[in-house]
Amino acid sequence: MFKLTMYAVVAAVLMPGISYAQAQLNGLVTGKDGQVLSGAYVIVENSSGRTNTAFTDYAGGFQFSGLVDGLYPMMIRYLGYETYRDTIEVSGPSTRISIALIPLPFLTDEVVVEATRLSPNAPATFQNIDKEELSKLNLGQDLPFLIGWTPSLVATSDAGAGIGYTGIRIRGSDQTRINVTVNGIPINDPESQGVFWVNMPDLASSLSSVQIQRGLGSSTNGSGAFGASINMETAGVEQEAGALISNSFGSFNTRRHTVQFNSGRLGNGFAMEGRLSQIASDGYIDRASSDLRSYYLSGGYYGKKTMVKAVTFSGKERTYQSWNGTPQSRLENDTDGMLTHAANEGYTEAQLENLLTSGRTYNFYQYENEVDDYQQDHYQLHATHIITPELKISVAGHYTYGRGFFEQYREGDDWLNDYGKPYPVVGADTIFETDLIRRRWLENDFYGSTYSLNYQQGRHDVTLGGGSHFYRGDHFGEIVWAEFAGQIAHNERYYEGVGNKDDHSTYLKWQYGVDKWNLMADLQVRQVDYETFGMDNDLVPIDVKTDFLFFNPKAGVRYNLTNQSAVYAYLGRGNREPVRNYFIDAPEGVRPVFETLNNLEIGYNLTRPGMIVNINGYYMDYQNQLVATGELNDVGAIVRRNVDESYRAGIEADLTFQIVRRLRWNVNATFSRNKIQSFDEVTYDYSVDFDVINTRFIDTDIAFSPGVIAASRIMWTPAENLEIHLISKYVGDQYLDNTQNEDRKIEAYTTTDFRIAYRVENLLFKEIEVSLLVNNIFDALYSSNGYTYSYIAGTPVTENFYYPQAGINFLAGLNLRF
After folding, report:
1. Which of 45, 439, 646, 661 registers the highest number of CB atoms within 10 A of its CB?
2. What is d(CA 741, CA 726) in angstroms, rounded to the nearest whole number?
3. From CA 679, how far away is CA 684, in angstroms rounded?
4. At what angle do helices 335-345 and 349-357 cross, to 10 degrees?
């Protein structure tokens, strides 16, 4: 499948011109007032069932070639206007039409994300995914798996089945470097900058669209994008009331139950939408169970010039921990290796027995309540008002409340060294070590506001926007139970720390279109103040007080070669502050500095009947990128150091073909080099006075950055209301650290998923849909993530750990819409 995918990419890029009939359709799209509408989405379907699409240029024009005389169904969509649907007639060598769209009598939800999204003609690299596309694969898995087919993206799951703790990388950048927003509101945890999809279960059911911006993208709210941005828009008002009941069941005792409703736009301009969801799974990995519950509720007023919308959504997760991964020796059924690993780690007899007998689904944790238990509640209020036909203002306020813990059973911990507590005395004996249960808590408040002021006049489109966000986080640990507690109280705290972060940003965006040119400038100033104090979980005092002032400029130009093709260039600079752990785990006297990224994107787009081609080249030059070196601080925590120079460079191709009537094929591939120019690995020799060995590496691959990522989607509609999808994904070799050591890597893998869905309309319900998703149909044995560490104990020791993913498994769903 991978070879077939690669041949298709090369053939599509190099294929000679295809001969089409001479009939041509030229159109102009305007509003009722005669104003041209650039970026309108135009869809034409011909008699063979092929769908032709285009966006109007800055003169409001579009063109379709290769047509023959006849009637063509046409649809045109544009923000703030009613969707146009009609059948047009093409006759002779050239047909010209002019279409005036009718303004909607009310504002729509798209205005909420308009300021932070790239427009259709923007000179940057992005992809839009609509609600229909998301729903086709949504049977309960987290969002990273629903969008896993998109270019340069790799998804992974700790539990191995796409439910629970899942992760995402785009262009090799992990989710701490991917800026995620919901309705323009930041979602990344301000301290770790991570995104925890498990805290937002089934959010995909309440989304109307997702835009993925690869590279720096455009200025938005929240932490800086250092690999990509994911901009999510929640579901908006529907014209008609409706409800949906979704149920799915599958492998590993997976089940999902969702109930949704939408009031439609009522006569007084108000509308509501809501959802309740429950997802549960035992997981592929032993005991890696998940119990996830969530809700979504929105309500608002949609007037002609004013929209006010309140949104709240919440997720409650209780997930059995499977964070440790599986030792390489266990995956390879290497008994001697497992015995050596157990001896090196000091395993008990019970832990050794678990390792030797568990197989590929091994989970280190055995305590019945080794869980992560967390809830996060989100509240948003959005308001937009059209001041004049040219001037529009949008403001939003938000508040997120998060609280929860992860619980651990510990064997033989030292009261004084591990918890700072005096040794208890039982009778005449002093108890130095004990078995205990502890909880590590996080309780946080995140609140703030955003604004944007948009001015459109003629060919100018200017937006002034920004936001202020405030984070207050409490970190603390509790001793829940101990075999020998002495005077230690139940739930006694053994560490407490506070993290405060203020983030202020202002950006100015300008787009200008003239003739065939589209120019963009984007300037952002971001101020970050961070403070943390108290005690860390390693019982080390923490005292960090720092601030950053960043200037992040971006600019781009797009040139329309024809009405069907364009080229673009983009150049941007971004800066990113270190995350919490980089500060508190740094050795004494060493403080990490901020990272800088210079991003160049050059692309080509082609949209013609039966074919869409997007080819993009990128160069991402990092200064002071923070990477793990193998170094540990004085309490054994991993240290990250700034490296002077590193880069990512690649080519992305994303191609869609209408092969024949009802058969469409999308294929994408990324070929990249991801290098650190100079890197010093630190290894500790525990057999010789804890000596530190430094080894310099030159021009090595950046960890977790495969040189090839490819995907293929075949979409076939053999009959009305019947859909069949075949989705393949190839991920090349990727290294576990930055040494490019062949003994420390994740092997390349290919997976193929099969989906079939059948829909019946107006039979008891408005719509009944039955679907079946079979994941990994060829039962590939693979791992999608891992980690490694090395040391010397007489002889060199390297321990690799992997996160194996499920073999063949299925999910079946039933949707009832009424």
Report:
1. 646
2. 35
3. 17
4. 150
d(Cα 147, Cα 127) in Å, to the nearest integer? 11
What sign for the dihedral angle of Cα 57, 62, 66, 72?
positive
How much is the pLDDT for 14? 39
Give me the chain's average pLDDT, please: 90
Percent of the chain with pLDDT over 90: 64
| Residue 777 β-bridge partners | none
C-beta neighbour count of 373 within 10 angstroms = 17
| Rounded Cα–Cα distance for residues 338 and 340 (Å) | 5
Burial tier of 457 (Cβ tally within 10 Å: 0-12, 13-18, 19+): exposed
| Amino acid of residue 655 | L
Under DSSP, the state recorded for 102 is P
**Alpha carbon of residue 774 to chain centroid:** 23
Could you write out the DSSP letters of every residue in 287-329?
A: T--EEEEEEEEEEEEE-SSEEEEEEEEEEEEEEE--TT-EEHH
| Residue 597 CB neighbour total at 10 angstroms | 27
The pLDDT averaged over each successive group of 10 residues in the chain (818 residues) is: 43 40 79 77 70 75 80 83 86 87 76 80 90 90 94 96 95 93 94 93 94 91 83 85 96 97 88 96 97 96 91 97 94 95 92 95 96 97 91 95 96 91 87 94 96 89 94 96 86 94 95 89 96 92 93 95 90 94 82 93 88 94 90 70 93 92 92 94 82 89 96 92 96 95 96 96 91 97 94 89 97 96
Residue that has been written with the tokens 């005991």 in this structure = 287
Q: Which domains does the chain have, with CATH numbers?
A: 2-101 (2.60.40.10), 363-375+405-817 (2.40.170.20)
Structure tokens belonging to residue 168 = 């995402």
Going by the DSSP 8-state scheme, the letter that residue 165 receives in this structure is S
Find out whether 640 and 628 touch, Cβ atoms under 8 Å. yes
What does the pLDDT look like over 346-363, one tens digit per residue?
Answer: 999 999 999 999 999 999
* Range list of H helices, 197-345: 328-331, 335-345
715 contacts 663 by C-beta, under 8 angstroms: yes
Q: Fill in the amino acid letter for 139.
A: L
> What tokens appear for 125 in the block?
């690299």
458 class by beta-carbon count within 10 Å (0-12 exposed, 13-18 middle, 19+ buried):
exposed
